[in-house]
């Protein structure tokens, strides 16, 4: 029963990721695309965690951690780009 629930969750997360991929490509605005990409990252972390439980392995934990860090950095960079129009500020005084 537990394995069936995990397989259903894996299918639902995969389907949601496909829908989010469409939103990331066709999104009407840049913030919609950024939110879709961030949510895709979260869904990929969830998919990797479910696969780790289904396969009874710890091999995906490093990938989950790395993907979480990269997703966070990407979200911060995109948010800064939306706010200021640039990602890196090169201040001449500092």
From TrEMBL:
The chain crosses the membrane at residues 6-22, 34-54, 60-78. One of its GO terms (cellular component) is plasma membrane. GO terms for molecular function: sodium:proton antiporter activity. Its main location: membrane. It comes from the Bacteria. It holds the Pfam family MrpF_PhaF. It is a multi-pass membrane protein. InterPro entries: MrpF/PhaF-like. It is found in: Cell membrane. Keywords: Antiport, Cell membrane, Ion transport, Membrane, Transmembrane, Transmembrane helix, Transport. Belongs to the CPA3 antiporters (TC 2.A.63) subunit F family. This is Multisubunit Na+/H+ antiporter, MnhF subunit.
